[in-house]
Amino acid sequence: MDRALTLRSTTVGTKAIMAVTGAVLFGFVVVHMLGNLQLWLGAQAMHDYAVSLRKIHGVLWIARAVLLASVLGHAWSAFTLVRRNAAARPVPYKHARRDQATNYAARTMPITGVVVALYIAYHIMHLTLGVGVAAHDPQNPYNNVVNGFSNPLIAVVYIVANVLLSAHLFHGGYAWFNSLGLSNPRYAGMKRAFAMGLAGLITLGNVALPVSVLAGAVKPTTETFCSPELGPCAGPGVEPGR
Ligand code: HEM
Question: Which residue among 12, 26, 136, 196 has its CA within the 20 to 30 Å range from the CA of 1?
Answer without folding.
Answer: 12
